[in-house]
Design goal:
Length: 193
Amino acid sequence: MLRRLVAAWPKRATIRTDMTQVVGPGPYQHDLLDYPADLLPFAGHPDFLAATEEQRRLVNTLAWLAYNERVIAAEEYVANPTFEKLAHGVFPGLDRFEAKEAVQQSHVDEVWHTYMHMLAMQRTREARGLTAEPDTYTQPVTNRRLYARAAQASEQWERDLLYLLWTAVGEISINKFLDLVAGDQTIEQIGRA
C-alpha cells in the first residue's frame, strides 16, 4: 500500500511547477468575497447584518486572512514538527524506505501549503488595499489545547503521540474544510485554488 501511495504522489501532490497558477490565478474580482459568507459563525448575527456592506466585506476579508494564519500556525507548529519526528524515527515502524519516502513527501506538501497560504494572504492584502499586518497572531485554539495537553503529559512519548494525533485529525479536518471552500463560487479564485 505504501508503494502505491508513494507512486501516486505526483498526481496527488499540491506542489506545482507552474507558479503562474499559484501567484496569478486570474484577475481579482472585487465583487466576489474572500471567504465563504455561510462559513462565518456570526453571519446571521444582528450586529453583523446591521453593519454597512463595506464593513461586512472588510470582516469577510479579515476572516479569510485569519483562516489562512490559523492554517499556517497548525502546519508550522504542529504538523511540521510531527513530520520531523516521523522522519527521525521517534515513532516505530518507519524503517522501510517506502515509509520514509511517504513521510518526506507529506512533509514537502505541508511546507508547500504554508507557502500557498502566505501567497494567498499577500495577494488578498494587495488587492484589497490592506497594508497593515499584525506583528503576531494568537495561536489557534487547537494549538493552545495541544500545548496544554502536552504540558500535562509526564512522558515524552505521550507528548509525541499527542502531536501525532493532532496532526492526523488536523489534516483530515482541513482537507474536508478545503473541499467546502474550493466548491464555493461566491469567493475569489485564489480561495478555491
